[in-house]
Amino acid sequence: MTPNTNDIYYVGIGSNVRRAYDKSKRNIHWKRRYNKYGLKVDIISENISLDAAREMEKFLIASIGVENLCNITLGGEGAFGLKHSDETKKKLKSMLISYSIGRVHDKETREKISRTRKERGIQISEITRQRQKEACRESSMRVRELTTGIECYMWETPEIFNASYRTVNGNSNHERPIANGKSKGLNFIRI
């Protein structure tokens, strides 16, 4: 609901009150309205069955008119309460890892990320660094540094070559040595 005019711009259901205030996993239309007008939440009903909530959602969307809302469906659909199986979770994780590995941002993007993190005072915690190492160990990717011929696991490269995992991972996708920084001249390939 728009705070200053009380115009309703979204109708939805959720498993708890926090979902109403959550800005993640929203469609682009919702995000634009939120950025322009803000958010006022009006919870109409609580502690009702999922079927009753779906019917109420359909009724309200039909009453207000989907053309006046940010909803992209007529309501009652969605994967509410969906629980992924362990097999599906493993598949999603491997897809995410394979998408992330080898992905290299250009210099301008890296500078923008760095600047934003500094402005917000965000630093990578030691816990996050440990999780990154563990994820790297799980993938068990091996690399060879071409100038020395040394082979090792990707997660061992910071200790052996004083080169970050990210640098080595990005370099292993190319056939040319690292161009700058403390790892300049090193050249890795995946084996």
Structure overview:
By secondary structure, this protein is mainly α. Among the domains are: 1-78, no CATH class; 137-191, no CATH class. Helices cover 44% and strands 5% of the residues. The protein has helices at 18-21, 28-37, 50-64, 86-100, 107-120, 126-139, 157-161, 165-171, and strands at 142-145, 151-153, 188-190. Strands 2-1-3 form a three-stranded antiparallel β-sheet, covered by helices on one side. A hairpin with a 5-residue loop joins strand 1 (142-145) and strand 2 (151-153). The chain is elongated, with a radius of gyration of 24 Å. The mean pLDDT is 82.
SSE inventory with pairings:
Elements (H helix, E strand, L loop, with lengths): L17 H4 L6 H10 L12 H15 L21 H15 L6 H14 L5 H14 L2 E4 L5 E3 L3 H5 L3 H7 L16 E3 L1
In N-to-C order, the SSE pattern is: HHHHHHEEHHE
Strand count, sense and barrel status of the largest sheet are: 3 strands, antiparallel
The largest sheet has its strands arranged as: 2-1-3
Q: Count of DSSP helices? A: 8
**Mean pLDDT level:** 82
**CA-CA gap between termini:** 55 Å
What is the gist of this entry?
The chain is mainly α. It has helices spanning 18-21, 28-37, 50-64, 86-100, 107-120, 126-139, 157-161, 165-171; strands at residues 142-145, 151-153, 188-190.
Keywords:
191 residues, 3-stranded antiparallel β-sheet, 5% strand, mainly alpha, single chain
